[in-house]
Amino acid sequence: MITQHIQKGFTFFVGAVADDPKQKIKLKAFHCEILNDFEAIRQEEAAYEALPVIRNITPDMVQQNYLGIKCDIRSLVDSEMHKIKNSEQYRHLLEKKKPSPKGPASL
């Protein structure tokens, strides 16, 4: 758990971490202070330039792209599985599974 407190130009981070048996951490709790020059940060941010818009993307465009990629991957997997099933060299790598009572899983 990490908490952050900001007070008059100071940022404090306080927290604790957990280790595991294979990777022990000697220092599990910490408290640190970061000194910020807020005026310098403000000046730097004021000089930022907006990124130009290359093209406008709509949520529908993103969804259509996602569905197209999903379809391409399904087609690729089906094609490769067909090759493996029909290959004497690799056919043994496939496990014969009993069908699930819930039916086949879909991508």
| Global shape | flat
- Which oligomeric state applies? single chain
Distance between the termini: 36 Å
Helix content: 25-40%
Q: SSE order in H/E notation?
A: EEEHH
Number of strands: 3
In terms of DSSP E residues, the strand content is 15-25%
Number of helices: 2
Region (Disordered): 88-107
Biased composition (Basic and acidic residues): 88-98
Features:
single chain; 107 residues; alpha+beta; three-stranded antiparallel sheet
Can you put this structure into words, describing what you see?
There is one protein chain. The radius of gyration is 27 Å and the shape is flat. Strands 1-2-3 form a three-stranded antiparallel β-sheet, with no helix packed on it. The protein folds into two domains: 2-46, no CATH class; 59-91. It is built from two helices and three strands; from the N terminus they run E-E-E-H-H. It starts with a strand and ends in a 22-residue tail after the last helix. The protein has helices at 38-46, 59-85, and strands spanning 2-7, 10-16, 29-35. Strand 1 (2-7) and strand 2 form a beta hairpin. The model has no long low-confidence stretch (mean pLDDT 84). With 107 residues, it is of the alpha+beta class. Residues 88-98 have a biased composition (Basic and acidic residues). Residues 88-107 are annotated as: Disordered.
